[in-house]
């Protein structure tokens, strides 16, 4: 029992450290990719190819003055970015990042908790993150932050409903909410990947994920084209950084989940081992998210809600109906 507890604590520590680093490093990668698409250099002065820019940004965030507005609710204002971080990292608990492997005769399971409701837990724990922008905007004492938090509530709640309904059709085929079982269902090769059986569900879930992650062109929570920064207008220093570190950590988590549900997870591909295969898949989906940011223009709130409720929701329900008919036949 004590060995299990120690192993779990080590897994949690490794997960937090690795994804905190990846979240920070993703800011550098995204700036480089956006610069490539827009024919400019991106970070290039601090270190070779600008690699130390991540370290410089981290030092800046840690050393920058932490400003709390006079009219803000100090307790809730401080708790909001902590909730964002906790939601992102707790949601990773049921994700099997790799297959089991052995070190010095000890079998390591690269998953914190393989619960039979793993996918539901991931969606539920991730949805708690809505309280971060909502409470942050409400506690700031600023009308601009309040408007940003209202956008957050509308957008995140809407697309969480769509993503949850969308995923029902693939789950009807698998018969389990465990991500390990979802991965094992696709162990017979590429043709067993669910993306070929549920292409509509994949597209809908991918778009809904980008909207939940506040990714451009759906970044209405913190709109980069405006003078103010939505719910984060009054935040500075480390608290500001925690919001966006959580966003990037959640991006990696969603890319792992998409790879596991629709693209065979950590099952090997021909001569490519499973661990390397899932890393390549995740890297592709992270790049795809950054590609979308560099390519598509922003959408208006009314366009976003129309797409959610009048296009994506009916398509998700239609997909469930068609899948149920196919299963019955």
UniProtKB/TrEMBL annotation:
GO terms for biological process: aerobic respiration. It is found in: Cell membrane; Membrane. Pfam families: NADHdh. InterPro entries: NADH_UbQ_OxRdtase_su1/FPO, NADH_UbQ_OxRdtase_su1_CS. It comes from the Bacteria. It catalyses: a quinone + NADH + 5 H(+)(in) = a quinol + NAD(+) + 4 H(+)(out). Keywords: Cell membrane, Membrane, NAD, Oxidoreductase, Quinone, Translocase, Transmembrane, Transmembrane helix, Ubiquinone. The keyword Oxidoreductase applies. It is an enzyme of class 7 (translocase). GO terms for molecular function: NADH dehydrogenase activity; oxidoreductase activity, acting on NAD(P)H, quinone or similar compound as acceptor; quinone binding. It is a multi-pass membrane protein. NDH-1 is composed of 14 different subunits. Subunits NuoA, H, J, K, L, M, N constitute the membrane sector of the complex. NDH-1 shuttles electrons from NADH, via FMN and iron-sulfur (Fe-S) centers, to quinones in the respiratory chain. The immediate electron acceptor for the enzyme in this species is believed to be ubiquinone. Couples the redox reaction to proton translocation (for every two electrons transferred, four hydrogen ions are translocated across the cytoplasmic membrane), and thus conserves the redox energy in a proton gradient. This subunit may bind ubiquinone. Belongs to the complex I subunit 1 family. This is NADH-quinone oxidoreductase subunit H. It comes from Helicobacter cappadocius. The lineage of its organism: Bacteria, Pseudomonadati, Campylobacterota, Epsilonproteobacteria, Campylobacterales. The gene is nuoH.
